[in-house]
Amino acid sequence: MTAPSFFLGLPDRLADGVAPRAVIFGAGHGSTYPGKDSSGYVLAANAVRAASLEDAGLPEHWDFDLGGPLFDGKPVCCTDAGDIPTTMHDNAGNRARIEAKTREILSLPAVPILLGGDCSVTIPFLVGFADQGPVWVLQIDAHIDWRDEVHGERQGYSSPMRRASEMPHVAGIVQVGLRGVGSARVADIEAAQGYGSRFVTAREVHTDGVDAVLRHIPEGARVVVTLDFDSLDPSIMPGVAARTPGGLTYTQLIDLIAGLGRRARIAGFDLVEFYPPADVDGLSALTAARTLVNVIGAIVRQV
To answer: Which domains does the chain have, with CATH numbers?
Structure first.
């Protein structure tokens, strides 16, 4: 799917010989369950891009989220590669293309930023880091996504953290934002805990702040972040398939991203499960766009 514009008006490439610090790309489909229609997620990447355009001329202006301009006084160092082609129910083909694009960006070297898509795109995104290990995974989500299979599909949106736990290059998993009820059975919780996953509920973050999360991340670790937008409270992110009250606030999210950038190293980032058909007055798209600005700002500020 061709994007009408690039995120924040960023270029699709830098001058010859100049490697970007980060590269954005979109993937509308991952591994869709039999009989399911995931076409609404194809709209997500371009909705986020469109929401960013009002600020396209402002990267050199002061950003109070970041404590300075987006690129911290340095030249533009992030590009938007547009969307890779994906097709609903071409699960194996979609996974291969997402993995290949992730590896391509890592070889530059640069930090890949993936705009999904549902959570199933996270699995091939993480596979793309197989030669980059060890990495930690920070999942920001209302759900643990630890199902082994659903309707015979083991690579779907309910299974990315179970699959991540099986990847030799993944050193550990921290899961934050958990609340409400989802697809997890008692056996799934026990499997995650048996693996050693660190659970941090949304309530803990509300009570103790983002340090409740960051203390589980080893200092200096390379971390791949997967952000499911249903981790946020639906009052600011209504455009998701599983609205659940009590989610993280925008400020908690950006404080977590900034804190992670200072404590460890963001090696990759995906933003998934924004479902534009459920959005209200473009609020979710705006929240997603501002979140992505903070992701870029944190990566730029990493040593």
So the answer is: 7-300 (3.40.800.10)
